[in-house]
């Protein structure tokens, strides 16, 4: 497999695989050998933080990959682990980097936009479940909200569903309090 050239790293069609596997990640679109398109996400060896990237010129394929928010994003050479801040602005970190969000007031957050790291903290700190345990998340959702989560959902999407259910409950409580005060 050839390595990317520095000029390739400026392509608007460059997609980064967030999950980095030893040897890279290969994604195939299409059926049958003659119609298949393979994309090999591999380390861009010329960069210091070595993201795994691939040029995806097909708009439909690129959009389908980018819909998997936990797995892919458009590559941005200005993003580095040191200066990248993808934490929603309403979430504060203390001087030790600990999440200080008030989970009792989730109404100002968009469950579809919070980061995976935020959801992991939400699962651990607020729900008391492992962010990677589908069984624990499913049990929590059923017990606390009567939600039936599909086993095919990712743990991240399960957590988003639980967060939305909790937001709905918080909204009902807020509305009830407003009615009581009128």
Structure write-up:
By secondary structure, the protein is an alpha+beta fold. It is built from 4 helices and 5 strands. It has helices at 59-66, 116-127, 134-145, 155-180, and strands at residues 14-17, 25-29, 37-43, 52-55, 72-74. Helix 3 packs parallel to helix 4. The N and C termini lie far apart (68 Å).
Keywords for this structure?
single chain, 182 residues, alpha+beta, five-stranded antiparallel β-sheet, 4 helices
Shape: elongated
Strand tally is 5
Q: What distance separates the N and C termini? A: 68 Å
- Which secondary-structure class do the elements indicate? alpha+beta
Order of helices and strands: EEEEHEHHH
User: Biggest β-sheet, characterized?
Assistant: 5 strands, antiparallel
The percent range for helix content is 25-40%
Helical run tally: 4
* Residue windows where pLDDT falls under 50 for at least 5 positions: 80-91
Compact overview of the structure:
The chain is α+β, with helices and mostly antiparallel strands. The chain has helices at 59-66, 116-127, 134-145, 155-180; strands at residues 14-17, 25-29, 37-43, 52-55, 72-74.
Summarize the helices and strands and which ones pair or pack.
Blueprint: E1 14-17, E2 25-29, E3 37-43, E4 52-55, H1 59-66, E5 72-74, H2 116-127, H3 134-145, H4 155-180
Antiparallel strand pairs: 1-4, 1-5, 2-3, 3-4
């Amino acid at each position: 497999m050839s390595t990317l050239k520095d000029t390739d790293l400026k392509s608007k069609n460059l997609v980064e695989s967030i999950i980095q596997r030893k040897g890279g990640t290969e994604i195939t679109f299409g059926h049958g050998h003659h119609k298949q398109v393979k994309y090999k996400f591999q380390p861009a060896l010329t960069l210091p933080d070595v993201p795994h990237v691939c040029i995806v010129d097909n708009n439909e394929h690129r959009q389908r990959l980018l819909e998997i928010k936990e797995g892919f994003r458009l590559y941005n050479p200005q993003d580095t682990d040191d200066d990248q801040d993808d934490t929603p602005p309403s979430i504060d970190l203390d001087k030790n980097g600990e999440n200080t969000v008030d989970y009792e007031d989730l109404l100002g957050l968009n469950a579809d936009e919070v980061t995976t790291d935020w959801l992991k903290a939400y699962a651990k700190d607020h729900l008391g479940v492992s962010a990677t345990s589908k069984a624990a998340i499913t049990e929590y959702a059923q017990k606390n909200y009567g939600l039936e989560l599909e086993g095919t959902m990712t743990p991240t999407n399960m957590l988003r569903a639980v967060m939305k259910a909790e937001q709905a409950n918080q909204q009902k409580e807020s509305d009830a309090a407003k009615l009581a005060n009128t």
